[in-house]
Structures are given as C-alpha cells and as structure tokens.
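Whether sequence alone determines local backbone shape is best considered at the level of individual chains. Part of our work consisted of pairing the sequence of a single chain with a tokenised description of its backbone. This step matters because it turns folding into a mapping between discrete strings. For completeness, the protein is quoted in full, as a sequence line and a line of structure tokens:

_____
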Amino acid sequence: MSNTIHPSAVVNENVVLGDNIYIGPNCTIGFPAEYKAEFGKDSNYTVKIEDNVVLTGNVTVDAGSCRDTVIGESSFLMKAAYIAHDVIIGKQSIISAHVCLGGHVAVGDFVNIGMGAIVHPRQKIGSYSMIGMGTVITKKAKVLPGRIYAGNPSKEIGVNKIGLDRNNVDGSKLEQLTNEFENDNAN
C-alpha cells in the first residue's frame, strides 16, 4: 500500500514510515527535539510511524532525544496536535486537535485524548482511557487504564464503558491492565 504525503508537509529524511500512512498539509515530522539541553546535538533517534496512521494536518512530531518517537498502528492525529520528543503512542489511539503531549509521554493502546488537552512530560496514559477536552494531566496525576479524566487539574470521573465495551475489555481484563499499569509505575 502506498503512503500519501501532502506536498506542504516536511518529513525528515530519517523518519521511518510504515504502509498506508496519510500525512496532511503543513505537518512537520522528525526534526530535532525541543529539548534545550540536547538541541543541535546529533541524535541517533528519529520518528517511527507505524501502518495505517493518519496525521490530518499541521501536526508536529519531534524526533527522539533518547529513544525513537513512535506513533502506533492505526492511530489518528487531528489538526495541530503537538507530539514532543520521545513520546510513544500506542495502537489505535486518537489524539484530537490542539493536544500537546510533553516529552517522554507514553500513551497506551486505544486511548482517546480530547481537543486541547495538555499532558505533562514523562506522564503515562493507561490503555483504553479517555481524556476530556481541555483536560490538563499534571505531573502528579495518575491516568489508569479504562477510566475517564476531565478538568484542570485532571480528575477521574468514571469508567470508559463505551471504549471498554467497543474493544471487548471485560472486568477481569481491566483489572489485569490496571495491575500491570500500577506495577510499571512503581518501578
């Protein structure tokens, strides 16, 4: 399958592209991280965009500074999303318009982040979670799998029942995901 890259998009030559990718107008992909201590230094890290990813337009994805920045399979990034250095986005996640993901953020699989949400650097977003429009995920926030968060600062407001049902995640699977998430964050 072929990739579609709009002529106004700028994709660094070392970016690794999967198949069936759409990169829309004015996207900027794979250039040096906005990381003051490392800016301008040579890096062996880049951006990897997996199969079936859509970047609708004006999306910025910075190259990694200590690992590759990765956009997971079948993820969908809307207008003006900013993906900082060293971010890893899991498969089939939706990053809405004007979302800012700080450096080193890890987004799980099947996550939905609403318009204008801001995620503090080095945060971890659990799989199957939903982040409401305009939500601010602060440094001390915990974003568990399968939950819904909203507000500034973010607060858990419920279970993402629709997302869990849609992906056939039952109570025992959610408990397993939550335990794994908690154990990963303890290290």
In short: The chain has a mean pLDDT of 95. The first helix runs from residue 161 to 166. Residues 46 and 63 are 4 Å apart (CA to CA). The chain has one domain: 4-186.
